[in-house]
């Protein structure tokens, strides 16, 4: 399953890597990409192993805001 999220607070490639690495540590996340230029995070995951709530909480825990 693929999720495309609007995320605010990313200002550089370091922010992108922080989010990508945090998400890819979650069991069930197959791939994560973040772009500070578009303010989007795309996550490919196994919905039987990880929930959207866990993904958004991980992004928030890194200091970013996930917009509804």
Automatic annotation (TrEMBL):
Q: Which residue range or ranges hold the HMA domain?
A: 1-67
Q: Known PROSITE patterns for this protein?
A: HMA_2
Signal peptide positions (record): none
Its domain of life reads Bacteria
Name the SUPFAM superfamilies on file: HMA, heavy metal-associated domain
Q: Which CDD domains match?
A: HMA
Task: Note the InterPro entries from the entry.
Answer: HMA_dom (IPR006121), HMA_dom_sf (IPR036163)
| Classification via Pfam families | HMA
GO MF terms held by the record? metal ion binding
Q: What is this protein called?
A: Heavy metal transport/detoxification protein
């Amino acid at each position: 399953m693929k999720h495309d999220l609007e995320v605010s607070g990313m200002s550089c490639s370091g922010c992108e890597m922080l989010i990508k690495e945090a998400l890819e540590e979650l069991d069930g996340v197959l791939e994560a990409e973040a772009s500070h230029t578009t303010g989007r995070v795309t996550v490919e995951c196994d919905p039987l192993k990880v929930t959207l709530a866990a993904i958004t909480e991980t992004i928030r825990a890194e200091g970013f805001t996930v917009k509804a």
